[in-house]
Model the fold of this input.
Amino acid sequence: MTTVLEADELDLRAILRPGDRIVIGQACGEPTTLLEALIAQGREIGGLSAFVATSFSGIFTPEATESFALSSMGAIGTLRSLTKEHRLAIVPCHVSRVGPLIESGAIGCDVAFVQVSPADENGEHSFGLISDYVRAAVATARVVVAEVNDQVPFTLGERLAASDIDVAVRVSRPPVQVRAAKVSETDSAIAKFAAAYIEDGSVLQVGVGAVPDAMLRLLHDRVDLAVHSGMIGDGLVDLVEAGVLTNARKKIDRGVSVTGALIGTERLYRFADRNPSIRMCTTGYTHDAGVLAQIERLVTINSAMEVDITGQVNAEQSGASYLGGTGGQVDFVRAGVRSPGGHSIIGLPATAKGGTISRITVALSGPVTTARSDVDVIVTEFGAAELAGQTLAERTRRLIAIAHPDFREELERAAHVVQQRGF
Done:
């Protein structure tokens, strides 16, 4: 039987056991009331640990996480501040693997903290803004604690029966929002080169941020675009309202934008509420290789911290600082490059730290997130380098051509030394 509580009645000491491992809904699906209680009461329970894939709420600070151990698949969003204080343990994994790792027990899940919408007339809750790995957490956990928020939209797709909730905490508060980033001239230039690969009928996978926002603004002259993406933002609404995004030519899921996460503002959330043109799915569908293999004209857009002169991509770490994550990049890079009529694009600024460091580099300063054998197109504000099918020497030439002009001569000299030794 479900225990129903008001927020001020929540006492985690009656729910959690010392040493419990908690899996938390991520991004704009963060159950912030439950997290506030965990921060306030966790130390008294003792030995608690938690996993969350990304966070944009700002609720996880170094001080807040002193009462429990926190792990994640990356330092994405406001989690980045924790890595500097060594308060975040990183689990390197593709986002498509988070659900299976929870189910297998590799990522422990004694308790699931999730945010859901109020139940419908059938007694079913929507997972609202996040559907990716929360289904796996709910299925695995000993205890399911759901923050039932009447300001969360009822999205179509994954459901949670009221009877599957052990503790329901009723709240009414705005869910986490991620507002559009400020678009710079560099962002606009990268977006322009990336947008050139998007034709009528293309199916898009994009993230959120300045470059995706800038790119979506350039697509209003396209026809019958579609979406199959791990996440979508407010830019989706603009394209739908402009009549550009119709999903009309998709081979599968025709007429429907498929995603696992809504990351945006109240505008997006209102648009998604009971909207049959948006379907929220688990990563077992959004990132599944078999599903992605059925999509034609799939164009995937992802980001990186640096790319070496042979095409290896680092999207995780800069030196000793862990700043990103594996995410769904590899899943979608491979899908885009294999899709008939599709492309996989990695976009990044040519320089970092005020123009003092080249992001096109001879050797990566961090791990290889995406192998050079998977890479298709690299884009900076200086152009696009098409790498698929090219020799190492030709890749080097093309990548140096899109590096910042101030670094090209230096890169050519270093590349010559490397080539003399052999790649």
User: Anything to note?
Assistant: The radius of gyration is 22 Å.
